[in-house]
Amino acid sequence: MTADRDASLVQRCLDGDGRAFESLVRVYEKVLFNVALRMTNDREDARDITQTVFLKAWRHLGTYDRRHKFFSWIYRILMNETLNALARRRPSEPLDERLVAREPWPDERAHELQVREQVHGALMTLTPEDRELIVLRHLLHHGYEEIAELKGVPARTVKSRLYTARQRLSHALRARGVHAS
């Protein structure tokens, strides 16, 4: 069970076992990086944020409350760092959707890439809060209860906010000429 494994690793870290923290990094690095990337749309920012999150987690591991999942705790650190990075960021121009891949793609792959870029571009027009909900539910496949725990709100609130976020994403996609098929 991941909760038991995480609790054991955290205890080993607190007892001075640096390798245990390396294990926590291996377990959560990819998912945290992917969330940061989806939120910032910048690989370097996502790498920096992920590193900062693990540094802060290491420094403040003693404050982790074992009554909650370790992922919930480190995820909150990630979201705080991500939102701070977005707030510090200077306004930037959106990517030109007409950019093509460097290598030629077969027709099917090119269409898939174009749709993916349009969806990603539409996702980036959402507020960070809406984007976070979409990423958690549809890209990381978390359930409503799990998202509720991560966000510290009731599951009904998650469902309501996610419904609104989906509506906004749908509107942004229609504005880009993408229609459900």
From TrEMBL:
Pfam families: Sigma70_r2, Sigma70_r4_2. Belongs to the sigma-70 factor family. ECF subfamily. Residues 117-169 form the RNA polymerase sigma factor 70 region 4 type domain. It comes from the Bacteria. One of its GO terms (biological process) is DNA-templated transcription initiation. It comes from Eiseniibacteriota bacterium. InterPro entries: RNA_pol_sigma-70-like, RNA_pol_sigma-70_dom, RNA_pol_sigma70_r2, RNA_pol_sigma70_r4_t2, RNA_pol_sigma_r2, RNA_pol_sigma_r3/r4-like, WH-like_DNA-bd_sf. GO terms for molecular function: DNA binding; sigma factor activity. This is Sigma-70 family RNA polymerase sigma factor. Keywords: DNA-binding, Sigma factor, Transcription, Transcription regulation. Residues 24-90 form the RNA polymerase sigma-70 region domain. The lineage of its organism: Bacteria, Candidatus Eiseniibacteriota.
